[in-house]
């Protein structure tokens, strides 16, 4: 055994359970089928399993407090007492019902949905947006100028003690105070949340004191904002924070965790912080290692994030060992930890669950559990020498070489099409003003036309029938008959309530990305590789392993059937190339931009086939365009250029009279409005209900010429908004945009909602549009 005993660290582990135990417990609790005690017991078992698994895999820095019932940012808001008054909390313990009201809203109607009686129509949830450039959503904390903070929950301490009782010593994980305030939303424009830092720090001091008193020796404090473009004031806030915390609780060592990018111009400020350890992400920013080594103090522990917490490809262990051996030699074993690049929250739990996956492809992959093993191999190799792990390293190298040479990866025909993309494929035939006139003639619609984003509720019956068909217990003929019946009923109901532009409901689709990926070459799919999107909403991202093409039409048949049922226009519904890319595990052997263009050509083929079949409106959703934006402004243009180009490749092959729609979720548009306009969609629908139409300011200030559907129904909450609430939102929209630009629609698709929520909400939405038309006369 060498004298280098390298610590091996996990920054966080998936919360959901190997078999989605947390999802089913949460939804059972919300529906009243299980008691709170059963939910708490499920959570306790999941935490114990995660800690034991990481210990057994050889992880020596095991995280605690990485578990959450809904979201770790929401947990932090509750922990420090940042609970808006609308939720009725007046101090003391925070009830789970209050916590879930902040996450999901409450229906109200005079009953105590969140631990306190509300009258009328309940309370809305906090805003929700994407966690940096991931597909994970966090709840946006809300703070006011007069905000007071207090330690209302000691969840980090409770989980530390819970693990200790099992004989497992953990390193608690806490979201840093500067990142928390940076992500928070001010209730007024007269102050910045970061101004509240002096009030917030005493709460963190108290928490750290309690952890130290309980026997914690290290705490991981996450400050991912340190990889963003920071002002001098924000860098100063980091300095004040860590001087304060280390002086207040000197006996507790702080591992400051940065991830999702490089420190770059923030490196000097971060390296100067008086913390005992610094974690850096060498997957997203491998180039920063040399500068980091020069900047950190000799007495600091340097945690090197070398195992990818964001993607599922097997690590090149030989290359990593070669790179890290000189670092260990220079700093000594006690000065280095090997770690995941970030929390493993963003990858599936265990590859061994995938019994039906192609064996060759499976040999190229590593999920969270396998990544723990990779970390352990690296730790042993750096501690004991390469010979101690030669067999494991050699196996990894063989798998990587096999992937590189596999004929499954490259398609010369696809590469040829990419080379043939010309300027004419990147733009519509005419300017928007010309197209608008042609579309108005072809599609007769009233002022403030109503529509939905695409999907309708995927009821338990729909999921049960799909599962039966997948298992072979329901014939293709019977499955088709069921889907046709559901589709026809949905078309008839939309006609009945007076929607102007219809959708077919997407009952044949499992997921807006998976459905298309399953019909495209170059994609693979899993059975159990779930990752959390938000709350109990989990997704199974496709794996893009090779060149992408479309062998056959994917949606035309279902569109033709749906349109045959009605004289009203039915939108063709597609997922755009950027969203398919950003919501997949993407190959890492060619640039993401090239993969995106390949997908764009496949979607272009589908768009053209829909138009040829008679579709007058085609919606190409780019829900994830903003989410893929690099974290540093200097990198934005490159990404936006190829992302917008990809959208235009797939949307520009149609005639002027064909109306192209797109949809985007939870995006701050102000800084990318030029790119949104450059997409040149005829109609864009966006999330605006939780932000009270504030997002439309970007379109007003830019003088956006095309048409917009600002969401008036928050579909991520079970609340049913009243007519007056929607009318008020639309009135705010009219203050920002011209009447001729406005469409009326929900925030997003309705797949995850129940029919008894959707029906009254859409009836109210149609009524709100009718009232708006009267007001505009």
User: What percent of the residues sit in helical stretches (DSSP H or I)?
Assistant: 40-55%
**Proportion of strand residues:** 5-15%
Main structural class: alpha/beta
**Distance between the first and last residues' Cα:** 84 Å
CATH topology of the domain at 432-518 and 555-776: TIM Barrel
Tell me the layout of helices and strands.
Elements: E1 7-9, H1 21-30, H2 36-56, E2 62-64, H3 72-79, H4 96-104, E3 128-130, E4 137-139, E5 142-143, H5 155-165, E6 170-175, H6 177-183, E7 185-186, H7 197-213, E8 218-222, H8 232-248, E9 253-257, H9 267-271, E10 277-281, H10 289-295, E11 301-307, H11 317-331, E12 336-340, H12 359-362, H13 368-384, H14 390-405, H15 412-419, H16 432-442, H17 460-471, H18 476-497, H19 514-517, E13 521-524, E14 531-534, E15 537-539, E16 543-549, H20 556-563, E17 572-575, H21 577-582, E18 585-586, H22 592-613, E19 617-621, H23 636-651, E20 659-664, H24 673-679, E21 683-686, H25 696-702, E22 707-710, H26 723-736, H27 755-776
Parallel strand pairs: 1-12, 2-6, 5-7, 6-8, 8-9, 9-10, 10-11, 11-12, 16-18, 17-19, 19-20, 20-21, 21-22
Antiparallel strand pairs: 3-4, 13-16, 14-15
Helix pairs in contact: 1-2, 7-8, 11-13, 15-22, 17-18, 22-23, 23-24, 26-27
Would you mind describing this structure in some detail?
The chain is α/β, with parallel strands linked by helices and 777 residues long. The protein has a domain of 309 residues: TIM Barrel. 42% of the residues lie in helices and 12% in strands. The chain is built from 27 helices and 22 strands. The strands form six sheets. It has an eight-stranded parallel β-sheet with strand order 1-12-11-10-9-8-6-2. It has a five-stranded parallel β-sheet with strand order 17-19-20-21-22. A three-stranded mixed β-sheet has the order 13-16-18. The longest helix has 22 residues.
């Amino acid at each position: 055994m060498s004298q280098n005993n390298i610590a091996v660290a996990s920054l966080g582990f998936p919360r959901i359970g190997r078999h989605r135990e947390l999802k089913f417990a949460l939804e059972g609790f919300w529906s009243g089928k299980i008691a709170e005690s059963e939910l708490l017991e499920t959570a306790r078992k999941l935490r114990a399993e995660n800690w034991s698994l990481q210990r057994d895999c050889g992880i020596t820095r095991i995280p605690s407090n990485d578990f959450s019932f809904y979201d770790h940012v929401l947990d932090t808001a509750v922990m420090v007492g940042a609970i808006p008054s609308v939720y009725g909390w007046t101090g003391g313990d925070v009830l789970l019902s209050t916590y879930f009201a902040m996450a999901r809203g409450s229906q109200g109607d005079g009953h105590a949905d969140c631990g306190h009686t509300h009258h009328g129509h309940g309370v809305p949830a906090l805003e929700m947006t994407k966690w940096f450039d991931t597909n994970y959503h966090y709840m946006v904390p809300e703070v006011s100028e007069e905000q007071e903070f207090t330690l209302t929950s000691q969840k980090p301490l409770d989980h530390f003690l819970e693990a200790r009782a099992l004989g497992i010593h953990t390193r608690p994980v806490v979201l840093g105070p500067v990142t928390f305030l940076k992500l928070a939303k001010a209730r007024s424009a007269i102050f910045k949340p970061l101004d509240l830092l002096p009030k917030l720090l005493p709460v963190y001091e108290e928490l750290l004191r309690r952890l130290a008193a309980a026997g914690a020796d290290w705490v991981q404090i996450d400050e991912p904002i340190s990889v963003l473009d920071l002002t001098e004031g924000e860098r100063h806030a980091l300095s004040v924070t860590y001087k304060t915390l280390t002086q207040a609780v000197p006996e507790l060592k702080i591992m400051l965790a940065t991830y999702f990018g490089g420190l770059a111009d923030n490196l000097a400020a971060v390296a100067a912080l008086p913390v005992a350890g610094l974690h850096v992400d060498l997957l997203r920013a491998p180039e920063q290692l040399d500068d980091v080594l020069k900047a950190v103090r000799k007495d600091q522990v340097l945690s090197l994030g070398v195992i990818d917490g964001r993607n599922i490809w097997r690590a090149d262990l030989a290359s990593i060992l070669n790179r890290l051996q000189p670092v260990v030699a220079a700093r000594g074993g006690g000065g280095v930890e090997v770690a995941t690049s970030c929390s493993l929250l963003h990858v599936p739990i265990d590859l061994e669950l995938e019994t039906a996956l192609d064996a060759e492809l499976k040999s190229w992959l590593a999920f969270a559990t396998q990544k723990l093993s990779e970390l352990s191999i690296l730790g042993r190799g750096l501690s004991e020498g390469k010979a101690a792990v030669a067999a494991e390293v050699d196996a990894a190298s063989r798998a990587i070489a096999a992937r590189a040479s596999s004929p499954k990866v490259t398609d010369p025909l696809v590469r040829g099409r990419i080379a043939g993309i010309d300027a004419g494929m990147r733009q519509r035939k005419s300017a928007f003003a010309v197209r608008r006139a042609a579309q108005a003639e072809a599609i007769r619609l009233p002022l403030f036309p109503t529509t939905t984003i695409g999907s309708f509720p995927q009821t338990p019956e729909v999921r049960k029938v799909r599962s039966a068909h997948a298992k072979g217990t329901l014939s293709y003929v019977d499955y088709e008959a069921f889907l046709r019946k559901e589709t026809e009923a949905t078309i008839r109901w939309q006609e009945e309530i007076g929607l102007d532009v219809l959708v077919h409901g997407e009952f044949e689709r499992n997921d807006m990305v998976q459905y298309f990926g399953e019909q495209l070459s170059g994609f693979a799919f899993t059975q159990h590789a779930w990752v959390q999107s938000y709350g109990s909403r989990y997704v199974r991202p496709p794996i893009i392993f090779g060149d992408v093409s479309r062998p056959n039409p994917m949606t035309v048949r279902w569109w033709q059937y749906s349109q045959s049922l009605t004289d009203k226009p039915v939108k063709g519904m597609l997922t755009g190339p950027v969203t398919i890319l950003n919501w997949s595990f993407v190959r890492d052997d060619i640039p993401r931009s090239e993969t995106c263009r390949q997908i764009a050509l496949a979607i272009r083929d589908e768009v053209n086939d829909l138009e040829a079949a008679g579709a007058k409106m085609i919606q190409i959703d780019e829900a994830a365009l903003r989410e893929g934006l690099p974290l540093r402004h200097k990198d934005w243009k490159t990404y936006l250029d190829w992302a917008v180009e990809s959208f235009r490749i797939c949307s520009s092959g149609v005639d002027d009279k064909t109306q192209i729609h797109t949809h985007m979720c939870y995006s701050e548009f102000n800084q990318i409005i030029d790119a949104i306009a450059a997409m040149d969609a005829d109609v864009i629908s966006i999330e605006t209900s939780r932000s009270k139409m504030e997002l439309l300011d970007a379109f007003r200030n830019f003088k956006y010429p095309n048409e917009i559907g600002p969401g008036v129904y928050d579909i991520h909450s079970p609340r049913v908004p009243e007519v007056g609430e929607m009318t008020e939102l639309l009135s705010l929209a009219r203050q920002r945009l011209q009447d001729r630009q406005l469409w009326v629609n929900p925030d997003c698709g309705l797949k995850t909602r129940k029919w008894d929520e959707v029906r009254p909400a859409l009836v109210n939405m149609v009524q709100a549009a009718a009232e708006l038309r009267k007001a505009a006369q």
